[in-house]
Amino acid sequence: MAGSRRAVIDMHAHGFSRAAKELVDRHYTAADIVGPDRDTYMFWAHPEARSHDMQQLPLIMPKLVSLEARMADMDRQRVDMQVISPIPFQYYYWTDPSLGAALARLQNDEIAALAATSDRFAAMAALPLQDAQASVGELRRCVLEHGIRAFIISTWIDGVELSDRRFDPVWEEAVRHGAALFVHPVGFNDGRRLIPYFMHNAVGQPLEEQIAITHLVFGGVLDRHPGIRFVIAHGGGYFPYYVGRMDHAWEVRPELRRQIARRPSEYLRELWYDTVVFRPDALEYLVNLAGADKVMLGTDYPFDMAEADPVGLIEKTTFTASERARICGGTIAGLLGLD
Question: Can you state the percent helix, strand and coil of the chain, rounding each to 5?
Fold first, then answer.
């Protein structure tokens, strides 16, 4: 760990469950999984992008499953601890609800066991959100049995937006246990125009986050569940950087004030964000808008779209030593109760 200095914690890092993949393969064929409602990311990818991803797979997979490879990369990045979450491709929201619950439980037990092997790791769990009641039970089980305080979720759930009232019991349970919900998309859900130029990822994922935040804010989720802790991947997507337009729309369009009485920008400090924005000036803008206590170091490890030098990015900013300490580890440590 970090000795006398505050530990550097990467809150956005992924792992892969071979056991979950094998369980899915016993119920579904590869042909069953093809489609925009199942493998959204690959469905809208350009053939060249799919080919490149497959070429990278032998390099990425060891990092997803091997602690040794992972820790070597962490040392190079000057990262002391990773919070490991299931890879978004393994949400499995499209599976039968009973299978989805089994898959979430399997992944969560596996990742909890992995985190228990070293003080360099903490666990972030999955939820079977195609079944809200099963998700309530799994969230409670992970908190009480494993001490897990963070859960990764997508920007929409098998075609249903996060503002849908069916998820209110899940958000209530998260508030009850002080759990964080890390919102991370899988590509873009309707990517007809985003196939070329890797847009399904480079443009589509931040757009998904913009849409998800818009639903959380305008759909009244943050008002209905005060104290809820949503963490938005990739620096909040486009929302923080164009919130002025959202404020203006709220002021001039009465339908946007139907469920909320405050400007959208006032909700920005009720969300948390990672640092995966790749530019120090963009990171400074985000911190000036949301506060250093709402921004946390992340990498998106181990993909090619990850930030390779997360500490170096923060060192290029004009933040104070106190702000850097919060961003590098203090905020996420407090959020998840990490030592």
Answer: 55, 10, 35
The alpha carbon dihedral of 142, 145, 85, 282 has a sign of positive
The identity of residue 34, as a single letter, is V
* Continuous H helices in 34-184: 40-43, 47-65, 67-77, 97-115, 132-141, 168-177
CATH dotted code for 9-336? 3.20.20.140
CA distance 143 to 125: 10
Q: Are 126 and 86 in contact (CB under 8 A)?
A: yes
The model's pTM is 0.94
**Domain ranges, ordered by start, for the chain:** 9-336
Across the chain, which has 339 residues, the per-10-residue mean pLDDT values are: 70 96 89 70 72 80 90 97 96 95 98 94 97 98 97 95 98 98 92 89 94 96 97 97 95 93 95 98 97 97 95 98 97 91
